[in-house]
Amino acid sequence: MWSKSYSKSFKNIKKADIWRLWTDVNNRHTWDLDSEYCRLEGPFQVGAKFTLKPMGGPIVEIEIIEAQENFKFTDQTRFWGAIMDGIHEMEQTKEGLRLTTTIQISGPLSFIWRKLVAEGIVKTLPEQTEALVKLARKKNV
Description:
By secondary structure, the chain is α+β, with helices and mostly antiparallel strands.
């Protein structure tokens, strides 16, 4: 299994504000700048599936496999011969609210999907996290 994480702490941001943006999948493109669009029919819950159209890439189906309100959610994408999990966590610390995103990929063909997809996602995590927090602050003003 291959795994990479990005983590940063932010002051003056609330868990509920981040959670609200995370669970508003249909507007994910407003902070996930690599997405053209996302579509979720129904509530954000374990077992729910949504489609995501990455910039310049094909539409993928993603399943929510874990959801703990105001704490963590995990989404899973199944590729031919590999499974990729996106683990999104938040933790209140003395330095502020720590946001961590981990991308994990496993399976016999994970080495291919790591190069084609996962490494590109990891490269954009700092920019994506900053955009998420900026939007959360703007909406909370």
